[in-house]
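Posting this for the archive.
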Amino acid sequence: MAISSHDWELVWRLGGRNLGYGPYATYQGMVTGYGQTVRDSLTTLRAAGATVTGSFRAYQSDGTVRGYQFSYVVRGGVIVSGYQREVLPCWPVTVLAWYGAGLVRCRPVTVPARPAGPRCRSR
């Protein structure tokens, strides 16, 4: 929710400061990294003790939908360590197709002049 509302100070306090690396290790780097994200949508969530795992979709301002899996260690309501990795890059779709439908389904296709990979389909 904090990412979707672009509340970067809250994102940083809730654990963004503990997850960044390279150019994303600073507050400004984190903000820049999320700069094209319109909203996130949690798709799965599991908790076992202090470990929280799941997946989410990140909807980008250019119509791209990116899928991620994550595993975080949470203490006192703050992410203290963990990772996320991209698992579902989708090619750009129109804003109305993904934003209005709220649900995106991807299937593998090959399109000339673009790299092969999943293509987003609205449901």
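The longest strand covers residues 78-90. The helical segments are 8-19, 27-33, 95-101.
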